[in-house]
Amino acid sequence: MFCRQTHLANLALSITEKTTVGERFSMLAKRTSLLVVFVTFLSGPMRQPSHVLAQVNEKSELATMIASMSSAVLSDDQKARFADQTWRNLRARGDMVNRRDVTNWRGIESRDAWDRMREQCVKRLRLALGTFPERRVDLNVRITGSIKGDGYLIENLVYRTRPGFWVTANLYSPARPPKSMPGILIVHSHHRPKTQGELQDMGMTWARSGCLVLVIDMVGHGERGEHPFRGERDYKKKDSNYRWWRQDYYFRFDSNVQLHLTGESLMGWMVWDLMCGVDLLLSRPGIDEKRLIILGAVAGGGDIAAVTAALDQRIDAAVPFNFGGPQPETRFPLPEDAELRFNYLGGAYWEGTRNLRRTAVDGFLHWAIVASIAPRGLIYAHEFSWDRDRDPVWKRLNRIYEFYDAEQQIDFTLGRGSVRGSPPESSHCTNIGPEHRLRIHQAFNRWFDIHVTAEDEYSGRREVDELRSMTGAARRELKPKSVREILTNDVQANLVAVRKRRHGDSPADRRKEIRADWSLLLGDVQPRGEVEVLTLDTEYALRRSIVIERIALQVEADIVVPMILMYPRSGRKKQLPVVVAVAQSGKEQFLRERSDDIAQLLDRGATICIPDVRDAGTSRGSRGDGNGSMSYYALFFETPMIGYRLRDLRAVLQYLRRRDDMHQKFALWGDSFTEPNARETDFQVPKRVSGRPRFSEPLGGLLAMLAGLFEDDVSAVYVHGGLSSYSNVLASSYVYIPHDVVLPGVLTRSDLADLAASLAPRRLRLDGVVDGLNRTLTLDDVRSIYEPASKSYRTVSPASLSFTIDQADVAQWLLSPHASD
Q1: Which of 375, 451, 670, 797 could share a disulfide with 761, CB 3.0–4.6 Å?
Q2: Which stretches of the chain score pLDDT less than 50?
Q3: Is there a contact between 560 and 535 (Cβ–Cβ < 8 Å)?
Q4: What is the pLDDT of residue 433?
Q5: Domain boundaries, given as residue ranges, for the chain
Q6: Taking Cα atoms as reference points, which of 206, 118, 224 lies closest to residue 161?
């Protein structure tokens, strides 16, 4: 056996000796049958050698060459120059925003100037968060239980903020309510829901001092969680790194994706729940409407509290932790020139609430949101130590309070150490710790006559079940709906109305309207002038019969699109459309996975171009992972990631058009190489564990269809593994599409079936369509979803639209009806 294996290895190694590209591929193909004989001999008769032999022989010499060729385009210098190009491009835009913000702030020299800036900031912030209900629904407060404590009372209650949408809450009140009571609203961190111990301590302490304290479960947290993973026993796979206590936080990703698709935001929905919480406090007897306070805990609570206070003028004071200025991760001391170097825009993170869409282009940076609370009470709160003297945001805040002669209305609180340290040196907490509350108590005493000292702090923590608000009886009666259920109803009604309005439009008019709608969603997708060819290296393969061009195409000052162009050296049919293929995995996977189809295209005399748009394939940067950080950062601006990629693809088409040796028609091929999930897959799997179901990879198909919408010289669009619809992402509580294909607000205007309809009468084939869970749909399901497209095609060219599931005859389809020309 050893001799057989050694001979086989030597045979393979001999092919890698120095030969020309064509000789190497030819040698490999000629020896394929001999390799199969050895593989068969080694594997034994039970391995079905005839089947293996048939499979290997099916791959042509040309296909073998394509599957084995290098996808490299960029030189070492170019790789260094454009390394991490997408992230660097976005950060450069962020740096420009920071510089502009410094300039704008220096122009704010009076209260009137600040008031104008604040008014615009708050107005644009509100618009960016989504559509707030025009009218508040009846809260329909239901008290489902109560607890009598030492000097306080807890009411477990639920209240309604949207039809069918219920908030679970605990209301702490004095055992003997005074005639006038301050109202306090506490926003918990992403660590733990409303029942966490520090929240209980604050509720009991302030209730005993004469306050009403409302602590709610934020959307998706605690009793409002939309997943079943509440404890260790809820997922039993061993060695999976399952962390049940983090699942509420992790599933924010899913809720925010679904909300973004409908033009909403998780931040917006959380803020609305809190505004309705203010309504609830104001409805209670004895509440003092001039003493309403909101506190936002560390780890995400401060963000939501600050935004709520900025939008709701009824709130008289706010205590937002870790928001607006230096973060726990900031290294101190700050530099002497911190005013110029500070990152006012902030960074992006996958969970979404801190990543406020359009914050960069519309100017509502975090510091400005906090500052808009002035002249109301503000405690600028930090979980750990803080460089007070050099913090440029603290200086701005104090200047703004001076504009109002309200210097006594701003204060701060802080802890010790840093996020990198450990207790007791560092003052870590889950929400708001006792140390952080010391200065808060002092400020509340001055501002609102709330008398609490460290000695008055009280803790009589209750079990989680004692604080349950949505009891079984309440759930049966109220039938609370999930986020996705509410969104689905709204989306379906909206799409019906939109399609009804478009009914009767000609294909040209429909295309014009849909192009206008998608332009608003996609942002700036126009290529940046004339593209520049940085390098073009030509080589010949397969006995010099195939031309391979490796092109580095600079589409913007700091963005390069590496691409491979292939065509037969002789027998090339210039009347055929140029096939442009695009996928998230890029050109390397195309060469490996679709070598047979590419070979058939070349055999028929076609030209094929495979580019890597930004953050795809070899252009993917270090932040191109699946958690959405970079795509969230892109949403700070007007153009989402899919818009940037479409701009790149259109730039490639622009370059191909200007070549004299190219036909002025294109066939677009958008593909996915990720394996679909089986129909029986269990998608009820916690986040951040091993063995989760696969996400879909719909970018290629989306780009092909969108380029078909925007470019008039596209004759055919073929999509494999594309997403059935954005609305189908709402069909489950679990999201299995990557964030970088999320298009905020798309479902307010149309869906992918409408996009497909706009392509009529051009040829369109949708193959192996997957749903929001990355499962291949049946043809009947696809036809049903794409009925709007079928209607459009029936009026002009019924045969031009097809749905398949087998990837058969891709090359023939792409070139038809030109194949016989």
Answers
A1: 797
A2: 1-57, 622-625, 819-821
A3: no
A4: 97
A5: 2-58, 110-481, 511-815
A6: 224
What DSSP character marks residue 686? -
Of the options 3.40.50.2300, 3.40.50.2000, 3.90.850.10, 3.40.50.1820, the CATH number for the domain spanning 511-815: 3.40.50.1820
Per CATH, the number for 110-481 is 3.40.50.1820
Q: How far apart are CA 483 and CA 272, in angstroms?
A: 13
Q: Taking the model in full, what pTM does it have?
A: 0.91
CA distance linking residue 757 with residue 462, whole number of Å: 58
pLDDT of residue 37: 35
Closest to 413 (Cα-Cα) out of 393, 433, 397: 433
pLDDT value for 504: 75
What's 677's DSSP letter? B
pLDDT of residue 12: 37
DSSP state of 594: S
pLDDT attached to residue 619: 62
Q: Give the separation between CA 821 and CA 819, rounded to whole angstroms.
A: 6
d(CA 151, CA 205): 9
Domains 110-481 and 511-815 share a fold: yes
Residues 6+ apart with CB under 8 A from 307: 125, 129, 267, 271, 356, 369
Distance between start and end Cα atoms, the chain: 54
How far is 132 from 265, CA to CA, in rounded Å?
A: 10
- C-alpha separations of 659 from 532, 557, 578, 655, 664 in Å: 13, 22, 12, 7, 9
- How many residues are there in the chain? 821
The pLDDT of residue 136: 77
Closest CA to 38 of 10, 69, 77: 10
Query: What integer pLDDT is reported at residue 6 of this predicted model?
Result: 37
Give the closest residue to 345 by CA, choosing from 41, 532, 673, 104. Answer: 104
CA-based torsion, 194, 195, 196, 201: positive or negative? positive
pLDDT for the residue numbered 25: 45
Predicted pLDDT at 627: 54
Q: Which pLDDT score is estimated for 189?
A: 97
